[in-house]
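Re: the pair you flagged

First of the two:
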Amino acid sequence: MSDFTTIDAGGQPIAVRKDLRVPMRDGVHLAADVYHKPDEIPRPALIALSPYGKELQAFSLKMPGQYRPSVLWDGCIEAGDIARVVSEDYVHVIGDIRGSGHSEGEHIGNYNAGGVSLGEDAYDFIQWVAEQPWCDGNVGMIGTSYFGSMSVLAAAENPPALKAIFVNGGHYDFYETTYHGGVMWLMPRAAREGRGGDSGWAFTDRVKSRMLEEFSAEEIKQKVAERLQDPDVANWPNMFHTLLYPKHHEAWFDIVMNDLDGEWYEERNPITLAENITIPTYLQIAQGRGWTMDGTIELFNTVQGPKKLDILPYPPMNSRPFVDAHDEMFRWYDQWLKGNDNGVLDEPVLNVHVEGSHEQVTGTQFPPKEVEYRPLYLRPRHVLSERPEALGVEWAAPESFTQLPMTLTNDTAMISWSTAPFTEPTEMMGTGAAHIFAALDVDDTNFILRLWDVAPNGRRQLITTGYLKASQNELDEELSSEGNPVHPHTRKQPVTPGEINEYIIRIYPFANSFQPGHKLVAELSNNEPMSDEHNSLLPPDAFHLPVGRKTTTTVYRDAQHRSRLVLPYTVK
């Protein structure tokens, strides 16, 4: 007699094994649900692990994939299309990580579950699945975003049964997931707490702060007081509440308290660990949120085994439930888990969708074409020009914008600069830099730079972004190069009000061909709009912590202060 029940999924019978107990090496048991065809034949297994709750993932059986701005889009339904996995003759295993959902144990911090690395738990989980009678011993991973990050953490532990991974839309460098250029991004709060289109982590009272575990009450009180010296944090109600009542939002408390990069983030940095990965790795990332492209490319360069990378078209958010990218995923796993020679190994290692021209460019590394960095200078009258300004500051006077705090306005103050319409297709591909000479009237602020492709009819699409906390302008001189600035973000150097400084902003990777009649428009601000053509495609909480006080930014772009963009033009 079988030990599963059978459900009907749109006319397809699916066997379900509920609440299996998966033992970890320290005696803790994780919970898992298993889906496969209703027989006893062993098959390759695809494993999905997260803190979002295995029950929530079953929504893929009754809800079609939703795309932003659907009100039903839930950023936490990410484990993949259960019915499709089963129909492709795989076993779909969905588990709750330690301390979440129906699993045992505690979850401390973010990638540290009860003092046990999530990769270590993933190793034990994978090996247990491989030994079950319904699995043929070959295992892969499935899921987007957090699930993708779990795939990398698992592969870095080298469990023998894990034969390959396919990762779509993962987040890797944990500091860069939560602080872009030092500017706090609020989306991880939504994923943890459940807000703005996310159900959140399936935790009860078993999630604990590493900060509260490691420091005394008096030390925490002092550290909180220091963090509240940042007016952006102190003047934002959610941040204030988190710091004063940390046990309500312990995982988010840890992130708010650690606003600089270093050991706390580096301990379980998937990119650092990825040098241990030797199994076949297929990575995908959509354009439009530059930091995820940056981390994906870095991960691609780090893994050691056979690998592929797809840089996909805009928009940046895929469906929830996650049903995208399954065609490529099954071809990859059919090759490596089933041994089917389907030609995937003969295809290009790197595929890049070029926005604007909508061409596919292939190669072995990003950027796949030779590029040369050229400047576009910020000029008076909001002009971007290949020629620098010839007049001094007394004639090419600086211009200012003043951002009022959100307590007073929802408006975003900004300055923009535009090229003339391009007369021929102009392709750019790679990272870039913005060198902005500016003076502030306060000791710190956000620099938010957004580059747009604007069509003759005024329709525009975001191409890439750049972020920088003014106090974290320090460069890593060893790693930085023309058009590729790297900031360590390990310390703050408060700005002297009124002093003109050169701020160098990293422009995240992109690939775009500006067509004849189109313009490149650069917008510089301290905050970002709550909603526009781009942000309406993101979840409601996917914005950056606004400045908490009135801030005036004065931008200089004259013969002595050559503010400019440095962009990667492809060589014809």
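Second of the two:
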Amino acid sequence: MITNSPIRPRELSVRAHEVLVIGGGIAGASVAFHLAKNGKNDVAVLERNTLTSGTTWHAAGLIMQTRGTHALTEIAKYNAELYAALEAETGQATGFKRNGTLGVARTKQRLYETARNASIAKSFGLEAHIISPSDAKELYPALNASIIEGAVYIPGDGQTNPVDTCMALAAGARKNGVKIFENSEVTDLWRTLDGCYQVRTGEGVIEAEVLVLACGLWTRDLAARLGARIPLYAAEHFYVVTDTVDFVKPTLPVLRDTDGHVYLKEDAGKILVGAFEPWGKALPMEKLPKETAFIELAEDWDHFELPMTKAIEIVPALANAGITKFFNGPESFTPDLLFMIGEVPGMKNLFVSAGYNSEGIEYGAGAGRALAEWIVGGAPQMDISFVDVARFHPFQINKKYLHDRTPEVLGLHYKMHWPSHQLQTSRGVRKSVLHDRWAKLGASFGEGMGWERPMWFAGLGESTENVYSYDEPNWFKYTSQECNAARNNAILLDQSSFGKHLIQGRDACRFLQWLCAGNVDVPVGNLVYTHMLNQKGGIETDITVNRLSKTEFLIISSATVHPRDKAWIERHITDEMSVTLTDVTSAYAVLSLQGPRSREILSQVTDANLGNEAFPFATSQEIDIGYARVIANRLTYVGELGWELHIPTEMAQHVFDIVWEAGRPLGLRAAGYHALEHLRSERAYREYQLDLTPVDTLLEAGLAFTIDWNKGGFIGKEALTVQKNNLPLKKRLVSFKLHDPNPVLFHEELIRCDGRIVGYISSGVKSFTIGTSIGMGYVHHLAGVTKELIANSRWQIEIAGKLYEADASLRAFFDPNGDRAKR
């Protein structure tokens, strides 16, 4: 019987285990294997049918080490390392071989993107060679080299047999004490009153302290029985296998033709042609066969026609090859094309490993290791914030939202990964009450955590469509004008999407003092820029705290990490504390008025004294604007004099209208989030998940000034103290400015110090104020990242394989003392 209540009294258990993993595919086998390797000797795995049934059995088995970011490459590169050693360790053959990957580029822009990714490989000591069309043909004789601009060859990549690899992980897990039970379908599960988990199978009830859901497609619905919301949706995934063809040999590299939406791999003398077509086919769970362990769906040649046509273009010999198998199987996808691991918010000791977007074999080893280390260590041991299950907003479980987005997400695998690319589907979910006003002003909207946000503003009557580029996207023209207005007059930005949490209660101050590195026990009306840290001193949140009263604090965080921030705070509220957390994001619209004329503009619509003495920087006041009472925070994220106005939502349009009318004669301009990114980067303001992550400390990030060492204990203080007492730091966030004004920095570009790779750009922009690209990135140097190293070294930034001279500084290149915000 399935209950609607996620919490029930304990039933008498047939057996108990410390950790119970549900799912016997690559995700479940990997986490069990790594739990055992990390010393957990009481682990059990339940598989409803047989190991690898579900989706693992029909995976293509491609192994790629280099991904589009350093963080993902850190996870992916481990797969080749582990799979290469599994047979020797377990005695189970895996079919793993390093036959390499050949990624071809049909366009110059694709080749440029490919070269950028090849640079990332160098950070990890991985071979990645950009080669000519003729060189590519030597490696793959059947290739039609006339239609490509070049290629990347990664000899350490390869392929593996998914079934055998999963079996090897299971064998290794068993060897280290893990119990694996096949044909053990979970018919019910619940959480007990004392926080354990119990599941019912045909053989009785099993209890566990820690439950891991690694059930692929079925994770969402199984988690829902516990009250957990996991945004997953299925899609059909296709490949065909040809007859034996003459040009195939075992050493033939995997061919990836992303412009053609296809990959080709050797398969026992045949060719497997797989696709990530531009637009996939979403698959509701109710359309899956109910009692089938190894699911195969109906052929769809109409849908597969485009990728098959492209496959024949790139390898003409396929035109004469017969097809022995057309396979169509289900895979699960997430809304952002990143898998999810971690502890489910609000559900202690409930972990998830799912949503691999048809790349479970490629990420399974690294993700399983990361999750096992989290479970064993009580916290992540590496930066996995970008794949943390806590990153999602509750609305993203909506089935219509997922159904509409999933076809586009599948296609993103092989589409160009343009900087600032915007998804088209499941849009218009969350809108500011000012949305229509921004639209009338020519806003080009982008999406962040479901919010429609102005990214840039077109000229009167001009198109708001994005034209993407690695050099000069079409919005640069308009964004430069917005940045110029911010530096010389004033801009108005909509920051309503920023997360807002109200912390209240008798123990609110004590709680936040323990959770934050900065001192939040300040007078009412003071604003504190601070951070919440983990036990290693790593940065978990990047927030502003506004003290509203003795027992009330308003916490403001970025929209894209708002759910994760909430989960972090809730995780630390104990029953003994008189503390409540309320999400008040929708209660306030936020207008940010920034620029040297912002005081002049705001003074026309309020009777409040806005002078420096009456209204200092980093303070907050309730003031009247027109007929509205608003919370005015004197803050900036662009490096200028300005106020962030928190307005009751129902009065926001009124406030906007009168501020806009007052400001237009003084040069006020609407600005979008692209301008915000360019302006904050000029001032070297950090952004979470780019410049700040859980593996970076405040000292390394150059934010030591935010720490209050004298206020008493706080999470992470001991680790920071050790680091403080062992200077110089071996890792520091450094600002860079290119000498050449033409190249554009985005992120992930390599940093070289006297020729050696010492880090990569965490965030970069074309600075319209300075006239060249600037960026920030962590520099690693065993002898210490000192002022002397910065001053006396030759600095270069590698972009797509080319080196560009740069200046380096521990301070911002624009207004390093922050004088403009305080004038």
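Confidence is low (pLDDT under 50) at residues 1-5.

-B.
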